[in-house]
């Protein structure tokens, strides 16, 4: 198939440090190319891919000190994607709702994967307005705020099987990996580790929006003995960080759409102790890949029981459910459906005719 994949421009593909959406976009893009498909990636110019790269800006916007308004770059990208849409069997957007007004009017073969939370009132309003837009969810739980939209599939994320290796030896510390933010609850992780009497290592990004929370709520806790703050880490460092841990703490306090770090830990054989929120019951296998808890007392008890779990069985679950090969096959089924549905109706005008369509 001839496939266009459209990525956000905030991070490169793959991201140099933190960036869940762009990381998944990279895994999917490279696997589709490996399977022999003709893939064009619309992304930042510092992206690295075996697909045909259409650079939409020189570098990822989060790392570009000259970028004042990132949305201008995305608007220009939308125009270029629409001009080129007739070249592809399907266009796969990973941008939330930006493209809906245009894809609705052009009737182009397009599908959108939603990567974020959907429960905020503004999101419910916009997605309800564009209810006919073909969507893919990354968990069934993610759909709850807008259940009546046009969901084509739920496709769980997948990782390259050789990205992480099985670490059969149990580690001596607990790990927290991701973002420092109120919904990720690093404060809860620190309390659990302290009560369990096991050191905690925190590898996490601090967004500008969360700096006040970090300074006021988290930094004082980092002075406690047994807590080590490493900061933001990249892909190359995750294998050692996660694989060397006794368990990953995932004490979230929000409707997590997926939680990529859970399957990254599974790939290393590291059990996960996660709160029963959002996608967690879909992704976790209770008593096999870790423990699903609802209170700090349950989490502390789970830490003490984690030695009973087989790290090899954690890895086995990853290989069965969460590889990139499975993810790509799931997306190809959706792409075929979208291309077939589009062939039965109006098609996208050829390149160069979009503006004439608007002028008419």
UniProtKB/TrEMBL annotation:
Record-linked Pfam families: Glyco_transf_4, Glycos_transf_1
InterPro entries the UniProt entry points to: Glyco_trans_1, Glyco_trans_4-like_N
Family annotation (PANTHER family): BLL5217 PROTEIN (PTHR12526:SF595), GLYCOSYLTRANSFERASE (PTHR12526)
Protein name as annotated: Glycosyltransferase family 4 protein
Domain Glycosyltransferase subfamily 4-like N-terminal: 18-127
Limits of the Glycosyl transferase family domain: 170-310
Span list, region Disordered: 340-360
Source organism: Pendulispora brunnea
């Amino acid at each position: 198939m001839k496939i266009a994949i459209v990525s956000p421009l905030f991070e490169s593909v793959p991201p140099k440090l933190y960036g869940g959406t762009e990381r998944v976009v990279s895994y999917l893009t490279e696997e589709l190319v490996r399977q022999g498909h003709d893939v064009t990636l619309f992304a930042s110019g510092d992206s690295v891919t075996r697909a045909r790269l259409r650079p939409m800006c020189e570098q990822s916007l989060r790392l570009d000190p000259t970028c004042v308004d990132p949305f201008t770059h995305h608007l220009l990208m939308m125009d270029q994607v629409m001009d080129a849409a007739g070249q592809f069997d399907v266009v796969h957007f990973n941008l939330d709702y930006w493209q809906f007004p245009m894809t609705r009017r052009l009737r182009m073969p397009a599908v959108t994967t939603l990567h974020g939370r959907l429960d905020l009132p503004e999101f419910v309003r916009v997605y309800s307005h564009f209810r006919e837009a073909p969507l893919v969810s990354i968990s069934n739980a993610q759909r709850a705020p807008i259940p009546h939209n046009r969901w084509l599939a739920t496709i769980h994320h997948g990782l390259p099987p050789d990205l992480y290796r099985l670490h059969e030896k149990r580690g001596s510390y607990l790990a927290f990996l991701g973002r420092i933010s109120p919904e990720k609850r690093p404060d809860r992780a620190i309390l659990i580790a302290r009560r369990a009497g096991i050191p905690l290592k925190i590898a996490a990004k601090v967004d500008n929006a969360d700096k006040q929370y970090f300074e006021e709520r988290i930094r004082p806790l980092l002075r406690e003995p047994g807590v080590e703050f490493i900061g933001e880490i990249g892909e190359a460092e995750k294998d050692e960080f996660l694989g060397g841990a006794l368990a990953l703490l995932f004490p979230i306090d929000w409707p997590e759409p997926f939680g990529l770090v859970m399957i990254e830990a599974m790939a290393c054989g590291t059990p996960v102790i996660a709160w029963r929120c959002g996608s967690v019951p879909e992704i976790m296998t209770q008593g096999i890949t870790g423990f699903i808890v609802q209170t700090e007392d349950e989490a502390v008890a789970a830490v003490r029981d984690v030695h009973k779990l087989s790290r090899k069985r954690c890895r086995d679950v990853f290989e069965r459910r969460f590889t990139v090969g499975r993810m790509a096959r799931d997306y190809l089924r959706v792409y075929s459906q979208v291309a077939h549905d589009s062939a039965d109706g109006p098609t996208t005008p050829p390149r160069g005719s979009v503006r004439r369509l608007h002028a008419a």
